[in-house]
Amino acid sequence: MKKIAVISGKGGTGKTVVTASFAALASCGVLADCDVDAADLHLLTKPRKRERHEFRSGYTAKINPELCKRCGRCREVCRFEAVSRDFEIDSIDCEGCGLCEKVCPCNAVVMEENFSGEWFISDTEYGTLVHARLGIGEENSGKLVSLVKQVAFDTAEKEKAGYVIIDGPPGTGCPVIATLSDIDLAVVVTEPTLSGIHDMERVIGVAGHFGISVAVVINKYDLNSENSRLIEENAGRNNVFICGHIPFSASVNEAVVKGVCPVNFCEAEVVEKIKDSWKNILRHLGDKI
Ligand code: SF4
Ligand code: SF4
Questions:
Q1: Which of 34, 94, 124, 178 lies at a 20 to 30 A Cα distance from 47?
Q2: What CATH number is given for 2-46+125-285 in this structure?
Q3: Which of 77, 95, 113 to mutate to test the pocket of ligand 1 (most atoms within 8 A of CB)?
Q4: 141: pLDDT confidence band, cut at 50, 70 and 90?
């Protein structure tokens, strides 16, 4: 089983379009949407939910008024001023450190695990999709990313899938680092703009730090051939291979609006370029085309 993560230095570069297209071309893969803060792979893959699970992460303190003797110790020790004068805990201010529970002489404080979101295993026409919904304002997306990814790996193992194709989060933060561990190839999707080049360099740097092999897809490469050339030069310097050039086409956006996978919708020129990118990845991984 080969594990491929599609990432980008920032959002909006066409990462999900590329992921869904690769999934359609792979035909024997498991998909994982690790962009849990802004999951949208489901929009192009129309999943039918098979399993639903709660995601719990972190703790919030709660005081049992029947046991509380109002001694004030919890209020004294809480550095986050989460305990009110009436000895009620503000769940927004509480950081879940558990100090109040430790000092309470009456065992009146309990630490409750937070409900932080949900994760799902679904069927799509391109294979099983593991995806999640993080609750509004919830943190710990790195933990949820690791969970989604591990479930995808386990599912692929069970289903004897040839590939796990991951739609990774944008940027270079904790969720990206969680996505990049234990994968075979990071595919960076970039656009030929100066900010695109800068973001690409940063994310290549992160992947390089973890010793992960990197390929680059230049999306809308024909919008600025000079910047596309700079991306190629930059990739050469960083020992990164360019696996594809996808031209700009209004049909890609149309496909997204209609919720269909671009390789099943766009004109032949675009589809062929996406197929070329996938074939180059297979060659790079030493797989049959
Ligand atoms: S768990 Fe920590 S942050 Fe929350 S109320 Fe207790 S002492 Fe304050
Ligand atoms: S430390 Fe315990 S008993 Fe004292 S006020 Fe807080 S919850 Fe109540």
A1: 178
A2: 3.40.50.300
A3: 95
A4: confident
